Amino acid sequence: MHLIEPSLPALSNSEMGSESTMTALLRGAAPTSNVFEATVQRLGQSIKLGLFKPGQKLPSERDLADIIGVSRVTVRAAIQVLASEDFSLRDVGGPAARLWWKIPQWEERSKEAGGKPVEASGFLDRRFVLETGICELASERASESQIASLRQRVGQLGELVDDIVEFRRQDAQLHIAFAEATGNSDLVRMSAELQAELTSLIALIPPSPDALSHSNLQHARIVACIAKHDASGARLAIAEHIQGTRLFLGGLLPGSRASGEA
Length: 262
Hints:
By secondary structure, this protein is an all-alpha fold. The protein has 11 helices and 2 strands, in the order ααααββααααααα. The longest helix has 22 residues, at 120-141.
């Protein structure tokens, strides 16, 4: 992967058109939930669509924050995700610095995906249907000991945000524990199969402690609803959690088809 740092000429008419398209894609409606994941998605999709050229300066963090409608802290965290592995950006110095981006090299990750766009949307639809139902039932059926165990698992995950492998293992176990709280062995089996498939997808994207921390805050909200036996609240909380995954995967997977509503 190489970094091109030309002295930038004035934008041509076609480049101005791309810049307009880029701004329109980034702007949208300001995200009100899953703000971090939505920011990663918008920036990642802009790069994947070729709206930024190799060596082109990105807008400043302040400008990006204004365009997307989020804080500079959120933009900075999203850029840190994109700066790892294939989406490679580099600060050129100073608090008001702009960013250069390297040419993304999708070949290796595309090979892992069979050389085709990753079909994540269908999987995430199945996940939405299964896990919203599981959490609704768990909120009605979970015992006090199961609730205590869920809380303990969330606490353990909070200590693992810098260890993506162990976090993912414990994350999968937490979601399977939601199914166990329903008392339905078929749902436990289906949840385990779902988590195995999700692990394969997540392995294709760069790790992010910020994303893991936010994910675990959502876990805590799901468990809080289950503990209160709030079925509708649990369903809404897991739906938001799944939508966050959809946004994150949609922005980062090579050629991903992860769009859609959850």
